[in-house]
Amino acid sequence: MDPVSAVGVAAAAVQFAEITFKITKRIAVFTVLRDVPDAEGPKTFVERLRNQLGLLNSTVQRIEEGLTNYPEGFRDSELLELSDYVSNLNRHARKLDELLTRYLPNDDASTPTRLWAAMKSIGSDLEIESVMASINQLLPLLTTFLLTSMVFKGRFLFGTNAEPTQRQPTPSAIYQVSRYEVRHFVDRPGLLTEIGCLFDNQATQSPKIVILQGMGGQGKTQLALRYCANVRLQRRFGYILWVDASSKASTLRGLEEISKELNDSNQALLDTDARLAFVRRKLTTTNLSWLLVFDNYDDPSAFDLREYIPNNPLGNVLITSRSTDAERIGSMIHISGMTEDEATKLLYTQLDASEDVTNRIPVADIVRRLGYLPLAIDQAGAYMKAEGVPLVQFLSHYEQSARDILNSVPNLWEYTESASSEHGGETTNVVAKTVFTTWNLSFGLLKPDTSTGHLKATVLSLLAFFDEHEISEEYFQAYCSTNRPGQQQQPEWISLFTDGNGQWSSGRFDSLMREFARLSLITALNVDRKDSEYAVISLHPLVRDWINLRQENSIHRANFMTFTQLLAAVLLLELRNDHFSFDWWFTPSSTQRRQLHAHITYWMRIFGRYKSDLQPTILTSESEGQSVATSSEQLIVKYLYYIGLFKNSLELSHWIWESCDISDDQMLQVKFAAGQHEVESLESMDLYEEAKHRSREKLQYWKTIFGDNASYDDMRNASVVLLIRSLLCTINLQDKQEAIELCRSQLGTLQNNERNMPKRYEFLIDITIAAGLLGQGDVRNTTLETILNETVRCNRNDFWKKIRSYYILYQVTRYAISYSDDYDIKDQLSLAVLELAAYMGEAEYFQSRILRAAALSSMEMFIEAEAMVRDCIARFATMPFSRLLYGDAYETLGNVLMKQERHEEAYEAHSSALLQLNGPELQNHRLRVLDECASAAKKFNLELADAHSTLRLSLLKKTEDWGIIIGNTMDLYALKVEIGTETAAQDGLKLLIEGLELYGVEFIHETDNVRTHPRQINATINLNDPESLQGLAEDGILQKALLEKLGGWYGFDLLIRMAYELLRTADATAAEQAFRLAKAAFEKANDTGANDVTNFIDMIFRYMELHFKVDRDDQSVRDVLDWARLQIREKLGNGMKNIEDWWKTETKILVELANSAKADVGEETRESEEGETTASEGTTTNRPPSPLSSTAQSSKLPVTAHHWGESTRSSVMQRLAGGLSRTRILKLPPLSSSKRSLTLRRGLKSVQNTAASPASPATVRSQDGRMVEVLKS
User: According to the per-residue pLDDT averaged within each range, which of 8-22, 483-497, 839-853, 1075-1089 is highest?
Assistant: First the structure.
């Protein structure tokens, strides 16, 4: 897709946001009427208007963010579709704004009376209602686009600030040059003004001296040249003189050249001394003010420049230098890089490119990568022009060819330097100055040819492997103390940082870093240690590139291996392990976390270059008296996983797995850990099937390696646990049963004692999870009770035991929240989990707070629950937590809001949770949240609920879990019926056809009905071939197919509903065929329970009610009643007594219909009398919920595979409560504190808004050809 077009659509989205904000702000004046009596109708309409606009605006904003973040990721067709949606939205929004203008009073007339009149007018304006209906029709379309084209294709990243900052070019930014004034010079007026002010304010100094100090390439010489040009125009100085001070020899030559300019009387100056003396005398005695510039005085240790500065109060000296030591001479101005505006302007001018929106982002990225260094930017621009490299391709080109780019200059190049500045000789040659050569002088001053200088150069080389920001002394100090097997002594460069006893010396570290700073080899140095116990330094990114590029490959690779160990040394100090269960975690500070993330990210880039030539580096440490072996790379794998870079951890762990030689016992331990992390990384990337496949492979591999060796039992068990966890992650229910069997097998090998408790708890918890997913409530209840009993028996109080208790209690608490009505149990358990979380990491702490919020919500303490979960979400924005934790928080928030009937807000929260679940494979969590989105949307927008439910069903079809699929198919069918439009009716018919196919029954009533069937077809109902229907119910195949029970449904229900829908959609002939076939098949069916019989007959009665409206045949009604009575007697026997109330209600209504036909009462009169009869009879004549109603569907149709009995639930929780009273390790708070917290039960409720679609009439053709208007619902 054209990015320009994407920006155009995004701009249209922003325009819609502006219009809706304007409308929302205008109708906010009605809030003063919240207490006005008898205003519920208009207030509800206006409130619904405000909520719907807010929901639309939020959806459009998400789409706009996705367009801005990923403009190249959309096809033209997607863009065209989205552009049409947004254009229509803007058109309707403008129309709505115009209509509201009619009624909204002016500010001076905003009295309650006028506002009330305006609100009543708005609420009754049909045109406004029509516009809002048009807008609402676009909401499900936009939501579907958001879900299918952005979220589930990975194009939307929640929680990122992707929109580029708008940058306005600074008027003063122009191009910068060096040595000669050229048209590309970039004016930096602030610095030029500062130079002038320093000269003016040095009244007592003779002469006045200003130093421009900064690293090479920052434009110091440019600034000096421009200052000279400015003061020349101002005629401020009589003399403006320039000296190249890059060496003593060049300084002398420069002064000699000045003597020629000043010798207007042609005095005989025979040698250098005479000429120098003349210049000093001339400038000391003159009555004219003068400016003397010493350029590139970068090595103050080579000579003292003050010896050549004349003493005259009218004198002004400007010095450019890289060295901070020059500060002793005069007032110093530190020159840093250009601002981003100046840098981008420089590159635009160099390239003669326009500053349009297509160039803005790549130009900003380029100058940022070049560190805003003027010389580098000018070089890059010259290279792009010479080589024809497009802006958008430059950075990738730079990463491949940085050496060529940093060395390349055009033939005519204004940046030059004296050759002596690099080689130190007396030559007068001038060479081109490049980024690559500009730091050679500073590096030469380290004297790398000497032994000490060589060690300093090695340290500088190691610094270049870090990210340029925040390189901490901690890495070097930790490395100094790390045990590296096979390495008898520390590397020589460590001696630069240690004292005579071999102990770390921060003072010696600071001394070397100060030397680097004086030479401008590092850009920042903080050694005050106020905020940290370690010194921190920074590099310029191009200095880092220069150092890396100047190293030979073999040396660079060896230094990279040392850098790997530097990172691992810090990680090893922050790693915590539980050797009983192979659990581990890191404990870095926020500063360490930030630094490590940046350094390891850069490490991964270099690792890709050398990984084929490297081997894992073994590290060992002592933990609880045991020698633990790992590798530097494995520690990095763990940290990559810890911070959520799962793709990188997968790549690196696979490399370790392939690279380890298990003949070495330490390498075997490293290989084992690498295999574990390989599978865990796949699971975290939602690649569950691949994770399952690899975990099986690795389990088989270790069984082969370990054999019956008991010393490897822990590792063998850990491999089984890994496979179990992989099985639990997939969507396949067969995997859950396998997981239960594996857990039971492992439990059979473990003695039930305290020592084995950590291992046993792993398997017991996994059984509860698998049993819950399978709907095996008894298994889950029994296992949870076993867990509780084992927890009670454990009375140790050490650290790892508390961690075990945390995980156990977490699972038990989740169970209690979902299935217990005991508030005290929920309160005590959730508080206990929160207390134990203090021993865990940050992720567990926030996980426990989210669980506590869920407990508060289940206790009807909604205000407290909402506040707690919102606080967690706010804290997540500042910390790198996993997507699942974000999703859990938003899902919990949505559930809290749903209980308060704040449905629009709940939908927003559940949608936010959904955005975190956009992995490549289907997962149970995503299906659940989709269902929650649909449930919330049902309360205010049925079409929006339809979009989510349809998507959920399409995803479920990939699972082949037919019971869940049929359940969701019928849920969606009920929703289509509730929507009530003709299109929805047709969709409902298709859903019933799909449902029958799940039972192996093909249903054909259209000539073009060609479908791919999900299951094998055992029977075909072809309404286009009436002869084929003869005897179809007699052979038993149809009955056998329809009697299969899927998700609580029989196929007979679908077949009779199919007849009803065909009749409702004006296909009376096909409806009658399906009706007769359903009756005939049901007559032959055996083994049907009471509920199945009454459900089917209930649908028979619904069909007859609708059919009676078509032909008013009272005899057919009586025949059906006789048939139903006969079926009940045959299939239920004496069971008729148990359904007498239901039978009386159902037959009463049908009898009244038949009697009304005999009395020749009109349709409207009949319906009126029916309503009066129902009202007069009270509860006796109230019909049970229709099978077509959403309430009935929800009560009879399980959405998931969970089935819990109320009696079982109560008895289990009673046993749990008794067990808790015996538990000592929980340290539960007194009941009084929790009871006091129960006094606040629920928060404020917002007005419930519903957007019901009016039933539209459908024309139904009866068998004799008469046409009758029949209401659908």
Answer: 839-853
DSSP secondary structure string for all residues of 45-72: HHHHHHHHHHHHHHHHHHHHHHHHH-GG
Instruction: Report residue 803's pLDDT band, with 50, 70 and 90 as the boundaries.
Output: low
DSSP letters for 194-221: HHHHHHHH-SSSSSEEEEEE--TTSSHH
599 vs 395: CA distance, rounded Å: 20
Cα-to-chain-centroid distance, residue 1116: 61
Q: Which two tokens stand for residue 687?
A: 């690649």
| CA-based nearest residue to 24, from 91, 121, 104 | 104
Helices 942-956 and 962-979, axial angle in degrees (round to 10): 160
Give alpha helix (H) positions in 171-295: 189-201, 220-234, 248-262, 272-285
> What is d(CA 1052, CA 1099) in angstroms, rounded to the nearest whole number?
10
Retrieve residue 293's tokens: 């510039």
Where helices occur in 660-798 by DSSP H, the ranges are 665-684, 688-706, 713-729, 733-748, 757-774, 777-793
State the DSSP string of 509-575: HHHHHHHHHHTTSSSEEE-S-SS-SS-EEE--HHHHHHHHHTS-HHHHHHHHHHHHHHHHHHHHHHE
pLDDT at position 723, please? 93
**Running DSSP on this structure, what letter comes out for residue 291?**
E
Burial classification of residue 175, based on how many CB atoms lie within 10 Å of its CB (0-12 exposed, 13-18 middle, 19 or more buried): buried
* Closest to 442 in 3D by CA, of 547, 318, 327: 547
pLDDT tens digits along 1213-1249: 444 444 444 343 333 333 333 332 322 222 222 323 3
The CA–CA distances, whole Å, from 1041 to 257, 545, 1078, 1084 equal 107, 71, 13, 12
Q: How many CB atoms sit inside 10 A of residue 713's CB? A: 14
Confidence band for 1269, pLDDT divided at 50, 70 and 90: very low
Which pair of tokens denotes residue 860?
């009807």
Phi, then psi, of 331 in degrees rounded to 5: -80, 135
Instruction: List the structure tokens of 369.
Output: 């990568």
Mention every residue, 6+ apart, whose C-beta is less than 8 A from residue 238.
286, 288, 289, 290
Rounded Cα distance, 1036 and 1032, in Å:
8
Find the helix packing angle between 76-103 and 112-124, rounded to 10°. Answer: 130
pLDDT score of 1167 more than 90 = no
Q: Are 542 and 406 in contact (CB under 8 A)?
A: yes
Give the span between the Cα atoms of 1203 and 262, in whole angstroms.
103
Q: Which residues pair with 472 in a beta bridge?
A: 536
Please name the residues in contact with 1172: beta carbons below 8 A apart, sequence gap of 6 or more: none
Note whether 492 and 501 are within 8 A (CB).
no
pLDDT of 1255 reads: 32
pLDDT score for 437: 65
**Which has the higher per-residue pLDDT, 70 or 837?**
837
For residue 324, the 8-state DSSP code is G
The residue type at 1180: T
> 302 with 247: CB under 8 angstroms?
yes
pLDDT tier at 597, thresholds 50, 70, 90:
confident
Q: Which of 756, 1054, 1123, 911 is nearest to 62 (CA)?
A: 911
Cα dihedral: 429, 430, 432, 436 (round 10): 70
Closest CA to 572 of 584, 590, 559: 584
Secondary structure in 3-state letters for 330-392: CEEEECCCCCHHHHHHHHHHHHCCCCCHHHHHHHHHHHHHCCCCHHHHHHHHHHHHHHCCCHH
Q: What type of residue is 709?
A: N
CA distances from 279 to 256, 285, 292 (A): 8, 10, 11
Q: What percent of the chain has pLDDT over 90?
A: 12
Provide, rounded to the nearest whole percent, the portion of the chain with pLDDT above 70.
73
pLDDT of residue 199: 87
Kindly report the CA angle at 314 between 309 and 318, in degrees rounded to 5?
50
Alpha carbon of residue 543 to chain centroid: 34
